[in-house]
Protein backbone atom coordinates (compact mmCIF):
# COMPACT_ATOMS: atom_id res chain seq x y z
CA UNK A 1 0.00 0.00 0.00
CA UNK A 2 2.88 2.40 0.80
CA UNK A 3 4.44 1.77 -2.62
CA UNK A 4 1.10 2.56 -4.24
CA UNK A 5 0.81 5.87 -2.35
CA UNK A 6 4.35 6.92 -3.26
CA UNK A 7 3.68 6.24 -6.92
CA UNK A 8 0.39 8.10 -6.76
CA UNK A 9 2.01 11.20 -5.19
CA UNK A 10 4.64 11.38 -7.92
CA UNK A 11 2.14 11.40 -10.80
CA UNK A 12 0.62 14.81 -10.06
CA UNK A 13 4.08 16.39 -9.77
CA UNK A 14 5.01 15.05 -13.20
CA UNK A 15 1.73 16.27 -14.64
CA UNK A 16 2.26 19.73 -13.14
CA UNK A 17 5.80 19.83 -14.53
CA UNK A 18 4.62 18.79 -18.01
CA UNK A 19 1.74 21.28 -17.90
CA UNK A 20 4.13 24.09 -16.94
CA UNK A 21 6.49 23.15 -19.76
CA UNK A 22 3.59 23.09 -22.21
CA UNK A 23 2.35 26.51 -21.05
CA UNK A 24 5.86 27.97 -21.25
CA UNK A 25 6.34 26.58 -24.77
CA UNK A 26 2.96 27.97 -25.85
CA UNK A 27 3.86 31.38 -24.38
CA UNK A 28 7.20 31.50 -26.22
CA UNK A 29 5.56 30.39 -29.49
CA UNK A 30 2.95 33.13 -29.13
CA UNK A 31 5.66 35.74 -28.58
CA UNK A 32 7.62 34.59 -31.61
CA UNK A 33 4.60 34.44 -33.90
CA UNK A 34 3.28 37.84 -32.81
CA UNK A 35 6.66 39.47 -33.47
CA UNK A 36 6.83 38.00 -36.99
CA UNK A 37 3.82 39.85 -38.37
CA UNK A 38 4.45 41.26 -41.85
CA UNK A 39 5.32 44.94 -42.15
CA UNK A 40 2.46 47.13 -43.14
CA UNK A 41 2.80 48.81 -46.48
CA UNK A 42 2.43 52.61 -46.28
CA UNK A 43 2.75 53.36 -50.00
CA UNK A 44 -0.01 56.00 -49.84
CA UNK A 45 2.43 58.33 -48.04
CA UNK A 46 4.36 58.87 -51.27
CA UNK A 47 1.71 58.47 -53.99
CA UNK A 48 2.03 61.09 -56.70
CA UNK A 49 4.66 62.89 -58.76
CA UNK A 50 7.89 64.13 -57.20
CA UNK A 51 10.63 66.34 -58.65
CA UNK A 52 14.20 66.55 -57.35
CA UNK A 53 15.32 70.00 -56.22
CA UNK A 54 18.65 68.90 -54.75
CA UNK A 55 21.02 65.92 -55.09
CA UNK A 56 24.04 65.96 -52.81
CA UNK A 57 26.87 63.47 -53.28
CA UNK A 58 29.30 63.32 -50.35
CA UNK A 59 27.93 66.71 -49.20
CA UNK A 60 28.45 68.42 -52.58
CA UNK A 61 25.49 69.55 -54.70
CA UNK A 62 25.36 67.39 -57.82
CA UNK A 63 22.04 68.32 -59.44
CA UNK A 64 23.01 70.45 -62.39
CA UNK A 65 20.94 73.42 -63.45
CA UNK A 66 18.21 72.33 -65.82
CA UNK A 67 18.53 68.71 -64.70
CA UNK A 68 15.17 66.98 -64.62
CA UNK A 69 14.84 64.14 -62.12
CA UNK A 70 11.27 62.91 -61.69
CA UNK A 71 9.59 60.09 -59.79
CA UNK A 72 5.99 58.97 -59.94
CA UNK A 73 4.65 56.53 -57.36
CA UNK A 74 1.32 55.16 -58.52
CA UNK A 75 -1.58 53.75 -56.49
CA UNK A 76 -1.13 50.31 -58.12
CA UNK A 77 2.37 50.00 -56.53
CA UNK A 78 4.18 50.76 -59.80
CA UNK A 79 6.65 53.58 -60.21
CA UNK A 80 8.43 55.43 -62.97
CA UNK A 81 11.62 57.44 -62.66
CA UNK A 82 13.39 59.62 -65.18
CA UNK A 83 16.85 61.14 -64.94
CA UNK A 84 17.37 63.35 -67.97
CA UNK A 85 17.39 60.95 -70.93
CA UNK A 86 17.41 57.80 -68.74
CA UNK A 87 14.27 56.19 -67.37
CA UNK A 88 13.19 53.15 -65.40
CA UNK A 89 9.95 51.65 -64.18
CA UNK A 90 8.94 48.83 -61.92
CA UNK A 91 7.25 48.07 -58.62
CA UNK A 92 7.77 49.59 -55.19
CA UNK A 93 6.77 49.27 -51.57
CA UNK A 94 7.31 51.55 -48.60
CA UNK A 95 7.78 49.96 -45.18
CA UNK A 96 8.02 52.71 -42.59
CA UNK A 97 11.09 54.65 -43.77
CA UNK A 98 12.45 52.06 -46.20
CA UNK A 99 11.56 52.39 -49.87
CA UNK A 100 12.13 49.20 -51.88
CA UNK A 101 12.12 49.50 -55.68
CA UNK A 102 12.53 46.77 -58.25
CA UNK A 103 13.02 48.02 -61.80
CA UNK A 104 11.99 45.71 -64.62
CA UNK A 105 14.73 43.11 -65.13
CA UNK A 106 16.79 44.38 -62.16
CA UNK A 107 17.30 43.42 -58.53
CA UNK A 108 15.59 45.15 -55.63
CA UNK A 109 17.12 48.39 -54.29
CA UNK A 110 16.63 49.96 -50.88
CA UNK A 111 16.54 53.69 -50.15
CA UNK A 112 15.89 55.19 -46.74
CA UNK A 113 13.46 58.11 -46.93
CA UNK A 114 12.48 60.97 -44.65
CA UNK A 115 9.19 62.75 -45.13
CA UNK A 116 10.10 66.26 -43.96
CA UNK A 117 6.54 67.36 -44.70
CA UNK A 118 3.60 66.14 -46.76
CA UNK A 119 5.22 67.76 -49.82
CA UNK A 120 8.95 67.21 -49.17
CA UNK A 121 10.83 63.92 -49.18
CA UNK A 122 14.53 63.11 -48.77
CA UNK A 123 16.03 59.93 -50.17
CA UNK A 124 19.16 58.83 -48.32
CA UNK A 125 21.21 56.60 -50.57
CA UNK A 126 24.55 54.82 -50.54
CA UNK A 127 26.34 54.30 -53.83
CA UNK A 128 29.43 52.16 -53.36
CA UNK A 129 30.10 53.69 -49.94
CA UNK A 130 29.40 57.28 -50.95
CA UNK A 131 26.49 58.98 -49.20
CA UNK A 132 23.91 60.67 -51.43
CA UNK A 133 20.86 62.69 -50.39
CA UNK A 134 18.18 63.64 -52.90
CA UNK A 135 15.50 66.13 -51.86
CA UNK A 136 12.23 65.96 -53.77
CA UNK A 137 9.06 68.04 -53.70
CA UNK A 138 5.60 66.85 -54.62
CA UNK A 139 4.27 68.33 -57.86
Provide a short characterization of the protein structure.
The chain is α+β, with helices and mostly antiparallel strands and 139 residues long. The protein has one helix and nine strands; from the N terminus they run H-E-E-E-E-E-E-E-E-E.
Write up what this structure looks like.
With 139 residues, the chain is an alpha+beta fold. It has 2 domains: 1-37; 43-138, Calycin beta-barrel core domain (Lipocalin, Beta Barrel). It contains 1 helix and 9 strands; from the N terminus they run αβββββββββ. It has one helix at residues 2-35, and strands at 48-57, 60-61, 69-73, 78-83, 86-95, 98-103, 109-117, 120-127, 130-138. An 8-stranded antiparallel β-barrel has the order 1-3-4-5-6-7-8-9. Strand 1 (48-57) and strand 2 form a beta hairpin. It is elongated and about 80 Å long.
What class, by secondary structure content?
A: alpha+beta
CATH homologous superfamily of the largest domain - what is it?
Calycin beta-barrel core domain
Mean pLDDT: 83
Q: What is the tally of helical segments?
A: 1
Question: In what order do the strands lie side by side in the largest sheet?
Answer: 1-3-4-5-6-7-8-9
Topology:
Layout: H1 2-35, E1 48-57, E2 60-61, E3 69-73, E4 78-83, E5 86-95, E6 98-103, E7 109-117, E8 120-127, E9 130-138
Antiparallel strand pairs: 1-2, 1-3, 1-9, 3-4, 4-5, 5-6, 6-7, 7-8, 8-9
